[in-house]
Amino acid sequence: PREIFLKDYKMPDYLFDTVDLRFDLGEDKTIVSSKIAVLSRVEGAPCPLVLHGSDLKLLSIKVDGKELKKEDFHLDHRHLTLPSPPASAFILEIVTEIYPQKNTSLEGLFKSSGNFCTQCEAEGFRKITFYQDRPDVMARYTCRIVADKTLYPVLLSNGNLLEQGDLEGDKHYALWEDPFKKPSYLFALVAGQLESRDDKFITCSGREVQLRIWTPSEDVPKTAHAMYSLKAAMKWDEDVFGLEYDLELFNIVAVPDFNMGAMENKSLNIFNSKLVLASPETATDGDYAAILGVIGHEYFHNWTGNRVTCRDWFQLSLKEGLTVFRDQEFSSDMGSRTVKRIADVSRLRNYQFPQDAGPMAHPVRPHSYIKMDNFYTVTVYEKGAEVVRMYKTLLGSSGFRKGMDLYFKRHDGQAVTCEDFFAAMCDANDADLSSFLFWYSQAGTPQVRVTSSYDPDARMYSLKFNQEVPPTPDQPVKEPMFIPIALGLLDSNGKDMPLTCVYHDGVQQTISSNDQPVCKTILHVKKKEEEFVFANIPERPIPSLLRDYSAPIRLDSDLTDSDLFFLLAHDSDEFNRWEAGQVLARKLMLSLVADFQQNKSLSLNPKFVEGIRSILCNTSLDKEFIAKAITLPGEGEIMDMMTVADPDAVHAVRVFIKKQIALNLKEDLLATVINNRSSETYVFDHHNMARRALKNTSLAYLASLDDPELTDLVLHEYKSATNLTDQFAALAAIAQNAGQVRDGVLSDFYTKWQHDFLVVNKWFALQAMSDIPGNVTNVQKLLSHPAFDLRNPNKVYSLIGGFCGSPVNFHAKDGSGYKFLGELVLQLDKINPQVASRMVSAFSRWRRYDEHRQALAKAQLEMIISANGLSDNVYEIASKSLA
Ligand code: DPP
Ligand code: ZN
User: Fold this and answer.
1) How far, in Å, is the centroid of ligand 2 from the Cα of 640?
2) Fewer Cβ within 10 Å of end Cβ, the chain: N or C?
3) Computed over its alpha carbons, how large is the radius of gyration of the chain?
4) Is the pLDDT of residue 796 over 80?
5) Which ligand is nearest to the CA of 261?
6) Distance of alpha carbon 557 from alpha carbon 545, whole angstroms
7) What is the rounded average pLDDT of the residues 535-563?
8) CA of 320 to the centre of ligand 2 (A)
């Protein structure tokens, strides 16, 4: 396999002006005819035109109407080359034959539940026809679809419907035209038996947009929340960024077989059904929130991704980091800002930090790849979003908006780079952020150490920062990063002190005056070592650092436990209140892990339990905040902080703390469950979600005690639930404890929901993730369950992905978990390389474990890499993991 490098980027020699596509959709084959108006950029000597293509059967190729002979072009596995095309503009016509019915990779044109649909990002268009399949080739498309009228009554593509009509032989056609230039990855086609929920949206300038969400007819009732989310997103983008939708029609199609969550094809978004379909009985609060976020995300791409796109795939974060940031902000504005921030930061810590510290670590803008599909990562997306958030932190809301406005003014209709975004932000604000660009080029999570000192006589308070960016593959030595640190200083009553001025590098900077006190500031930490000294500080403060998590770093400070308890109780920054509790919990868990490893008996610091109690019983706090604050850090997060990750110890300690909390706070938890029940009909709003979250978190604590009386309570909750959020939470609570009750409820749940594949996937995932010893046998059995299918990505993600997310069973000492995954990766790779590659990633951090586990995991990776006919996708992950 060939590695592709950012440094080798070259502009295309040929541009495409218009592309007219015609699809004749058939039962054993589909004929794709394309007619491209080619423009030459090169002056002087002609150069070859190289088109990408894979798994295509070439039927004919014409230049300016003349059929090319065999010797006029060159065809290999991946390319169609015209060695000397005409020097001036010409028309290229190509006809290919493809086999969507046999396409299990779910990339290009394929069938899902009897319907045709496409997925072209990143490089799927080349499985449809020969093309310069790269994002800097932007063209205007038309698409004519011809198909059987009974089997495929609905024919959709990008843009506006120009014509439709009947044809001979029970066929019909539709002709679509997209007036906006676009790269091939945004092309889409759908044909099938679908029905739509229709609605409309009036834009800020008074234009009416038709909105349609397409699904099989029986699912139409489950699209109400998606439609609500779409309208909310359209309004939000106008209000917050002044961005208006630009066509008269916006379509969303839900399909059950889809590699990713969703795809932002121009005016024809295609979604994994799990991110569209919801009803109170079949979707949880988490699903409702995910639908809101992803519908928003794909809609927001219309400007950040489609109108302004990426020059090359290395720039992926230009659109993804920015669009994730936008969807995070949207969800914050629709619900609770603090709770959303906590959820996003937890995700970053549990998934991105480990990636950034492992063999697949790569910068937000990678330097190279073998398969681009492997770089749709938490680093490009979530860390990328943090990078965008830092611009806003540094420039303020209005400065950020100015930067966005300039970005669109300069680049609408173009394919650009991360530097272009950076330049727009700087130029619009006259700001010098030079070293900020290292966030795009350097991998690894910066480690920042803060030490403080107070001089009561001089009333000066000093904070010294020391930063270290750890080495990552191909990047042994790093430059210091530009890190915005938002902070406040608390006085002994827990109030924010006014900040007047700070000395930095011998220069005095005024923060605020007496008549207009300011209590929060942002320090720009840019050097390896740097000191900031605050003046006029009347007493030793307790610093609240990195408020709202102002930079994606690991922060290590000299705060004592009592400082942390103080912050937990008083910090005006709610995010940092939660964070103080998490820092305490992480310290506690790590020290208990050490005790466990030394066979010492475990005992829980009563102060910690009291801290949890005071949060749980604080009626002035938001209930979802409480639910988050009483939840312990994930096992992955703790393992990530250890020199040698010990899944058994971390798991045992987390279970121990959970049970201790449940035992000590039993009455409070019971009261919380009872007081937060509701018999009303399901409402998706923050108030009700928060109530359910708190009740269900408390229920899980109680169930962990495996006490018959409490089990009865949980069973009662299970039976009386009127929505899936409550029902599934009760099921999960019961499923913590092996035994007959668990088995009975699991089977009851399946019987009840077997007709609904999305609910069944949750049932698979719940069992797959279980920490019950020896669970691999059960998961193995579920592979042959009638509802399971290796060809459906959602099912694989639920059962196999779920299993790999269970530290104790996946990392079982006997190697059974590794062996299970190793064999499946090879089976999956034959069906769908993208999905196989996601699964093999579970091995990538094998060096983090003890020698015994290392040997077992390594053997599986070696077995995989030596297999015949391995895909480039899996090869890249496996080889980099072994390197
Ligand atoms: N569909 C994926 C996303 O929106 C890739 N663009 O993130
Ligand atoms: Zn996206």
Assistant:
1) 27
2) C
3) 28
4) yes
5) 1
6) 9
7) 98
8) 5
Q: In this prediction, what percent of the chain has a pLDDT beyond 90?
A: 97
Q: 514: buried, middle or exposed (CB in 10 Å: 19+, 13-18, 0-12)?
A: exposed
Pairing of strands 268-272, 501-504: unpaired
Residue 635 Cβ < 6 Å to ligand 1: no
649 close to 597: Cβ distance less than 8 angstroms: yes
> What is the H or E stretch that residue 853 is in?
helix 851-865
Minimum CA distance residue for ligand 1 atom 7: 320
Cβ within 8 Å of residue 660, ≥6 positions away: 604, 609
Do 807 and 647 form a contact (C-beta atoms < 8 A)? Answer: yes
CB 121 near ligand 1, within 6 Å? yes
pLDDT at 391 over 90: yes
Which residues have C-beta within 8 Å of that of residue 480, sequence separation ≥ 6?
Answer: 435, 438, 467, 469, 526, 527, 528
What's the 253 CA to ligand 1 centre distance in angstroms? 15
Is ligand 1 within 6 A of the CB of residue 298? yes
Four-CA torsion 445, 446, 449, 450, nearest 10 degrees: -110
Assess: ipTM above 0.90: yes
- Domains of the chain (ranges, CATH numbers): 4-282 (2.60.40.1730), 309-441 (1.10.390.10), 454-552 (2.60.40.1840), 754-883 (1.25.50.10)
Q: Cα(381) to centroid of ligand 1, in Å? A: 9
Tell me the pTM. 0.98
Q: Give the end-to-end CA distance of the chain in Å, rounded to a whole number.
A: 16
Q: Using most ligand atoms within 8 A of CB, pick from 301, 316, 373 the residue to mutate for ligand 1.
A: 301
* Closest approach atom of ligand 1 to CA 263: 1
